Prior knowledge:
2 copies of one chain form a homodimer.
Chain A: H1 17-22, E1 30-33, H2 45-60, E2 65-66, E3 74-78, E4 88-91, E5 99-103, H3 106-121, E6 130-133, E7 139-143, E8 163-164, E9 167-168, H4 172-182, E10 188-190, H5 209-221, E11 225-230, H6 234-237, H7 249-265, E12 271-274, H8 291-302, E13 308-312, H9 332-337, E14 348-353, E15 377-382, H10 398-405, H11 419-423, E16 433-438, H12 454-465, H13 471-482, H14 488-508, E17 546-547, H15 566-571, H16 581-584, E18 587-588, H17 599-623, H18 631-663
Amino acid sequence: MEYTEAWLKYRCLSLSRQQCEEKLYNSLISYAVTSEEGLKESPCFAMLISEFEQGVESLLGSRPCRVYDGSETLRFAVDPTFGTQDAYLIDFTQKDGFGAVTAHDAKGLLYGVFRLLQLVATGQTLAGLKQTCIPSNPLRMLNHWDNMDGSIERGYSGRSFFFADDQVLVNERTRAYARLVASVGINAVVINNVNVRSAATYLITDRYFDKVRALSEIFDEYGISLYLSLNFAAPIELGGLEVSDPLDPGVINWWKEKMAEVYAAVPKLGGFLVKADSEGRPGPFTYGRDHADGANMLARAVQPYGGRIIWRCFVYNCRQDWRDTKTDRARSGYDNFMPLDGRFLDNVILQIKNGPMDFQVREPVHPLFGGLMHTNQMLEVQIAQEYTGQQKHVCYLLPMFKQILDFKTYMPGHEDATVADIISTRALKNANGGIAAVANTGNDENWTGHDLAAANLYGFGRLAFDTTVDPESVAREWAQLTFAGSTQEAIDAIVDILMRSWPAYEKYTSPLGIGWMVNPNHHYGPNVEGYEFDRWGTYHRANWRGIGVDRTTKGTGYTMQYREPNASMYENVETCPEELLLFFHFIPYDYVLKTGKTLIQHIYDTHFEGAQEAEGFLDTWKKLEGQIEDKEAYERVLERLTIQADSAVEWRDRINTYFYRRCGVSDQKGRKIYE
Amino acid sequence: MEYTEAWLKYRCLSLSRQQCEEKLYNSLISYAVTSEEGLKESPCFAMLISEFEQGVESLLGSRPCRVYDGSETLRFAVDPTFGTQDAYLIDFTQKDGFGAVTAHDAKGLLYGVFRLLQLVATGQTLAGLKQTCIPSNPLRMLNHWDNMDGSIERGYSGRSFFFADDQVLVNERTRAYARLVASVGINAVVINNVNVRSAATYLITDRYFDKVRALSEIFDEYGISLYLSLNFAAPIELGGLEVSDPLDPGVINWWKEKMAEVYAAVPKLGGFLVKADSEGRPGPFTYGRDHADGANMLARAVQPYGGRIIWRCFVYNCRQDWRDTKTDRARSGYDNFMPLDGRFLDNVILQIKNGPMDFQVREPVHPLFGGLMHTNQMLEVQIAQEYTGQQKHVCYLLPMFKQILDFKTYMPGHEDATVADIISTRALKNANGGIAAVANTGNDENWTGHDLAAANLYGFGRLAFDTTVDPESVAREWAQLTFAGSTQEAIDAIVDILMRSWPAYEKYTSPLGIGWMVNPNHHYGPNVEGYEFDRWGTYHRANWRGIGVDRTTKGTGYTMQYREPNASMYENVETCPEELLLFFHFIPYDYVLKTGKTLIQHIYDTHFEGAQEAEGFLDTWKKLEGQIEDKEAYERVLERLTIQADSAVEWRDRINTYFYRRCGVSDQKGRKIYE
């Protein structure tokens, strides 16, 4: 299977000598490594040197020379006193006019090299450049939901490149993948689905040790720790024990011995991700234990090897009855985990989804952020576009992620702390923290199905490394790298489409934070009542008067899971952000929004607008014919934008008709709403 | 796999000599066959003799003696001048006080023997009995939708007993099945799914000839003709031809040679069932041909061997857009086939579903009945309870079938002719006709999943043979045979449950003929908008004012496919039968029905009543504990009635809530409707 180099093309810039000199690119041609001690032992050292040399040769046409006589014009150095782990500084402001990449450690140097190449590939001048990059998050992780049969749960980019036919794949693409994600700062990867079933349970047995170790070693060259998802019932399924009770001495001992065996075979393993008591997966609840019991038991077993246990908080009643209006799935994460705050060991990290439901196009921030004050926390986002168009629709998610990271939780004593401050460990001085994304990759030629979806992979890495980046700048950077050789008009158009894509998707799908309204199971396409009477706790409660879930103190009381003033902000319909209005309140169709429009007119307007914007993306793209250097990529995107435009019309019509049929109010602008 | 004898238990009656004499059962003990010539050659002769002898021995405790000396008290005779094919007469009114079974042919004798045993098993007196049974329908057929991998499309009784792992099964159960269905007069069986895919395409090749012939020979002993479903694209898939165009000489010749080969190998084959141009199956439309071209081409190929082509009329656009209110799936059968009336060959029979949609709990009669006047026709019903509770709910369908058969179509010149008159060939003197049911059997121990569902299998056979039977009498007969040895109270209760089951199911599911409102794909359980925006043409168009499809001349014009006065009856809301009101008209919720109730109150009332009745079935059954002779059957039914009662509540609540949310009208009786 062929595959592209995505944003690592390093297309030749074809610059004149003068241009090279103006941008100080000539300084890249001779380099020295000034603190080679220790560095040489690092598995990524050789790799970063060759990446640098090949990258520069590819971009500028000359291969850099490594010199040892003090004649270098670029210096690579490691300085353990600089910044923190993985930090680097790119500095072209030194008096002698030449450059230096100084890093805290070898991995920092690796990131510095990739960054330097990105800067050159996007044509930025090095003259006067000084970039200090201290990573925002200790853990910058991808969660792959790949199954060992080669399928990918919520995968929209082909089959797995980690597994096929219950075998672990280790090949050239493994390396290409590691290089790709390391280039944007990813330092941890979970390769198997959080739903650990059948063969995947055996990843921690000698059936797979050789291949898993081989994978972990390739990853290590790129500064990436390999993690595995774990089956909490492994003591039963593998060990033949009667139970997997986390307080049972036999179980404790089984895990202790199992981890000794695993780490002996795969010493570089970062740790484990666990989905327990969630959507039918086994967990401590079976034995009347809580999640701290479960997580800590595993944490003790991996502690001798420096292993981490990443424990998901996606625990809710997935057998709800729609007639039950007291139970609120949104409350469940907080209700289950808040009482455990302070009970988790230092090598446990709770992985919390960005919102309380499940990766909808718009959700409030999960109330565990700001709730928990004595627990390691990671933010989980999803760049696999499960609910945001499944990589058939373009939906650039960095603006959403940025809003989440910038949300102030008002923790007592940390009133200014944002989600970014919490997960980074800055605010609470936690032992561990970070950010994970459910990955959007597969063995499709272009890695992500939709070529434009790669912006989410690139962008997630950049944002995880530096939560202060500007989504539009990242989009531009990615477009320049990926579509190198295309016209400026094309790059501008791509950035414009990306930046307008999430708002457009939100407009033509479910309104004002209510979410869902998708087809059950596969989650693609509109189905307003698809989940309305199902067991998943995802209801919109639309009737002849209005729509929305009352999550105030008069309803489910979910608003009170937030700190003040957030709790009051959401509680009161006047102060509740309108983009989340239906998430928190039941609102009549004739309610007047701040725009002066009624709710029903807002629904009609946004749906007509959203579909029009999707049509606009397609029109824009058609005008770019001949302006995109990679013609196959042009055709692929054209096909997907066509699908999106059609699907957006279907969304528009089904949503509009649904609400029209509910309330009988006509569109003020007289547009076609089917009866 | 164990299996029951269903209604063929022949449980010992334990009668006294005096009781036997009173009922003339003693006459069964010595018999003669008075016209053995010709009979002996019939493959079913030996079988019917042993069935008679074993049945009587089982029921009465003594094995009948065959005598040759004129001392017989029962005479079996064949008289080709009596009645028509398969007809028989049971006569115990002869002056000498003894009995006779006289039949048109050996098969008639077979049916007479089974009937005689049924009469005895249900304890009816033979004294003075004279039953003339001339079959209403030439073809009395079962359509099995069994796939060769062993699954059954819309099967609710376990796996197939005809196929497993792409092999044809011929074993003891084959014979038990043939005996079971022959005992109620079935004379034709299609063993494979109408959707002919993969291995099933090869049933007409030497890969399967041996087993298919073996099957056909067993069937033949029971008077049953084996039919196969055919893949219209076989010339491409098997023959390697480029097309399967019915007017292409190569295709015509391929079929001609194929049928010569098939009939040489399986001479007793009755013919073929074809689903063409339907739900994605190949057909003549691909080549710009019509269904007469397709059916006649095949008919010519099988004509030399006496074969028949049964051609399904279930042809509609299954890629409809819900926004398109002009296309009406209900119209499609008539629109496609009416123009072809008179063009089909004599050995073609059109198989027409009972209603224009698809086996809903209530539909009007298909307008092709009464439309077509120069075409052989068969009625297709479904005893597999796809849309009527999937054999988890009890739903005795004979009362529905009876209504359909008794429907007057007002054909010109045949104003009194009912559907029964048409399919029997009586009205139009067609060359062929009959009735087919999609079968409800599988390899479950009790044949039909729900023990009470066997009443539909038994009843269908009885009704197919004699369309004048009374559904309640048939239900009682079946209950007495199946639950022999149970109390009279139990038999009465079973008959009562059966007779109330279809109305109850109708009450708690979709109202007044609108249909659907089921979960997509599997079709079990409520989902009011499950199909509302899908591609299948099955819409209810509910909005804030009302619900229903306008199929009058102001709407889709479907009403005009009926003859007058039916057309006007349906056209006018005042004369339209209320049980079909929403099928034909869009009706506001506040419309007042003939009961004086508004539509919305009618919906609430019927749903509360229906769920209560389902609960009542369960209560009744619980009271029968210890009164049902077969304890395992008692437990099985108990389990299913419990499921039904729960499901009926779910139906009630979802439907009521749906409509309450639509219109905001409260229940006048103040019962609980969830918001």
